[in-house]
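To whoever is on call:

I kicked off a structure prediction for a single chain this morning and the downstream step that reads the tokens threw a length-mismatch warning. I double-checked the sequence; it's 568 residues and nothing unusual in it as far as I can see. Pasting both halves so you can look.
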Amino acid sequence: MKTKLLILFTLGLILVILPLVANAEIIDSGECGPDVTWTLDDAKTLTISGNGYMTSAPWKKHNDVKKIIVNDGVKNIYNEAFICFRELTEVSLPTSLTVIGSNSFNACSALTEITIPNGVTSIEGGAFIECTKLKKITLPGTLGSIGAWTFEGCRSLESITIPDSVLSIGENSFQSCTALKSFVFPRNITKVEDQMFLGCENLLTVTIPDRVTSIGHSCFWNCSSLQGIDMPDSVTNLGTCMFWNCLSMTHARLSENIEHLLPNDTFNGCRSLESITLPQKINYINSNAFLGCTQLKSVTIENNGNAQIGENAFKNCISLASITISCGNNQSKEWFQENGYADILKIKPHELEKHDRVEPTTTSGGTEEYWECTSCKILFSDSEGKNRIDEPVVIPPLGNVDISKAKISKIADQVYTGKTIKPDLTVTYDGIILTEGTDYSIKWKNNKNPGKATVTLTGKEPNTGTKTATFKILPKPTELSSLKAGKKSLTAKWKKGSKIDGYEIQYSLKSNFKSAKKIEISGASTKKTEIDGLKKKKTYYVRIRTYKEVDGKKYYSEWSDAMEKKTK
């Protein structure tokens, strides 16, 4: 009975309260745009409706709003629309929105999460400043820009995913987001603005895409938990004080394309940084760049020229044990020596590149071979870099040359190909190599068929005289195709040759053809012969070559590979 009475009482209470909830009383209302209206009920719910843009925020005196509902059709959130709504905990936004105005949710300190709907393309500056309890924000894939100071002071925000549609993020956007632990920039960002993460004391890692060309000043100021930075080579410019007081930073990989300057105070106070390599293009290390880097042990400066070093650049680097500079960096060398670092200064050895000898001609000089250091550009006459020279040793022009006194290097025997043969020639005069077309011209004779070919050099003006040399063109060799054994005999077959007068066959009981006998066969058309009078059941080695007779002299080809066969 008591249970039935309790149920009836509860149902009655619900029936009394439900109408009151369902029909919350409107306590204020009005217009906030040409086609946009607003209402505020006694449950502290602000509802905005219409079809157009908000142009004002006339409800600001009601700063105890707890819930905001923006209905579909409204296209923007007006600037400072909900500023200092410190009791606001719930927000519902429509897909018709395109813009979140500047400072629109500034100091909404009770708001813990919000979803920005698809369709929004811009969040303007300061939109969520000092939303100190904001832990979660969902951003749409339509978003293109985030204004300056947008999330400054969002101390509860531990992570945020920025869609790749975002092309720009304004300065100070995440300043003092003290709970933020990691951040990945969208891939299409080209600039990291000033003071982006200033005071993010729990930030551990940042990923910078390879399209970024500039990182602004004080970007990571006092990010005391940041472990390190891997800077893409797309970066060309850095702002000052970039890693000031990043106490936990142990490593920093800088872009190879930073132009000219490492700004002042770049690593000031990075007391955990152990080593640094400054890429080749940095030729000025500004003042206080590494001031107070007490664990810094190793510094490498890759600039090949004279890198300048500013005041106090390495002051209080009490652990510094090694400084390495390029062989041509004399200005840095002098600075380190004058400031007490001579004992730990190391000079990189020369990296030598050989320049080949340039031969002189009759009208222009040449140069002897020499070696040049690719770093410091100093020249040496030897490959070990011991004998420094100011310039390559010049070989004077040859003047008029009598080609008849020149030397032509021995021309190796050539092999018939069916085409004219023009071997490479080395022509010297007093040890200097002459050049065809400049010092002399060439005329060839009988340089196609087997026999003796002739080459004649004629001096080109102002050179005079002629020089002749000969070389052999040998017939093309052939190969044995078979070797058949007979009774005290062998039958040899071979491939028919061309442009020849006959063949010569050698046979021997020894593989080195010592004491070999030979058979000469005239006529190119013959393709086999019998070798008789041999010893019974003995292994013979046989080979063949072609010959061509020219002017009573025979020119022989190379021997074929030998074949062996045992007689019957």
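Update from on-call: the warning came from a stale cache, not from the record. Cleared it. Sanity check on the structure: The CA atoms of residues 65 and 469 lie 108 Å apart.
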